[in-house]
Amino acid sequence: MRKFLTYFLLTLSLLSLCALTACGQDATPPDNKEPADTSDKVTYTVSLTCEDNTALFNGIYVQLKNADGTVAGQETPKGGKATFSLDAGEYTVNLVAKPNFEGMLDGLLYELKTVTKENPSVTIDITSPVESDDTIPYTLTVLDKDGNPAANLLVQLCGGPKGQCFTRTTDENGVAAFSLSAGVYAVHIDTPPAGNTFDNTAYQMTEEGGTLTVHLTAA
Question: CB-based burial of residue 160 (10 Å sphere; 0-12 exposed, 13-18 middle, 19+ buried)?
Fold first, then answer.
């Protein structure tokens, strides 16, 4: 009788242990989290060249912008090269001066280019514009949200017959003067003063050149 009772208790203990461990399986609920899917990520590479001043690479950012103008990625070019890992898509390359380096791109131009999943690498040459008898004056006046001149502000005119961006820094009166080939140019201001914002799709200059006043708005 004692042996039977011992056998019964041992069997009961084994059955209880089996129930607790799911008969040898791990009782801990499985981790159903799947690893992040990176199959749609693409490595985009932007290489810069500038024969006049390669030191400017330290004072600028390379940006990749979505179709709506929002910045999808921003990197400092290392050795003239910036690399991004982003969702597959089409992005426009933009160059912008870092804070305290606002004049770094002043007077320079570069070609507007895009990267895609099929063509993920581009090279952009940064050069000085060559004025000729075919150029006409374009003058911008930039006012901040309070209507005051926005001085020492980097502005760009992008477009024209060759699809290029030209950069200038506004003077104490908020004025930036360009001498460009006739064409339609969009006004870009990527680093407005603190408390201000600017829509890069809001203003254009026409083929006739001339003057244009743009207004920053409250951020």
Answer: buried
CA distance 115 to 113: 7
10 Å Cβ neighbour count for 56?
19
C-alpha angle 70/201/77, rounded to 5°?
45
**pLDDT digit string, tens, across residues 156-197:** 999 998 898 998 989 999 999 999 989 999 999 988 889 999
Let me know: does 204 contact 183? Beta carbons within 8 Å: no
Mean pLDDT of the chain: 82
Enter the pTM of the model: 0.66
Sorted by where each starts, the structural domains of the chain and their CATH numbers stand as: 39-128 (2.60.40.10), 129-219 (2.60.40.10)
- HSE of 71, CA atoms in CB hemisphere, 13 A: 13
The set of residues, in sequence order, having a beta carbon less than 8 Å from that of 61 and lying 6+ positions away, is: 74, 75, 76, 95, 96, 97, 98
Q: Which residues of 35-47 are buried (b: 16+ CB within 10 A; e: fewer)?
A: eeeeeeebebebb
> What value does the mean pLDDT take over residues 60-86?
90
